[in-house]
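Slides due. Your pick:
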Amino acid sequence: MRRKRRHMSFLPFSSRTCEKVELRPKHCIDTILKPFFDNIGIKINGQLSSKDLFYTAICMAVDKSSVHSASKHYQEIPCETSLRYHLRKLSLEELIQANQSILLHSSVSTLKPEKKYEFAIESSYRMRNIVKPRTSTKDVTFRYFFTILSFLLRNVWIYLQKKHFTIVKPGPITIDEDKFRFARFILFVEEWLRRKLRIQLVVQCLR
């Protein structure tokens, strides 16, 4: 007598039962821009927008270059005169007041109200210089804005690490840092900006 073979039945695939979460460059950019939009307002008349200014500033930071250098590589970047003109509308006092809200914009959501935390404040030039826009101006407001941007990039990366790459297990929080290092975060931002700002693929020859 032959035995009947039994076949195991599997549930049909559903995106609800097996949802794949992916981190993309656009999400990194949006997380960087939101604190600026929520806390800094720059009134601009014309085609140029405050978003264009922030894109340019972020591009300068990840490239560690000036707006003059960046404009040689990208097409959709305002000129240095335009950037300085509109950034002069920023108030140093308002930036100082908005500093905390900007830098802690994303990080606060990862904290639990009932839990006690100890924080170490890092404000060294070494950390800031990793992603620092270059400028020849001595204007304090400009330099303060660029410093906030430098620290914000670092804070956003830490926030994304904690939110998306925390290993689920009992005990202290453990983050799989190899999955998303700071260098990869910067590459994500650079890649998105290259498409948005349109990198120059043609160079005018002398002869």
Residues 103 and 155 are 7 Å apart (CA to CA). Residues 5-18 have pLDDT under 50 and may be disordered.
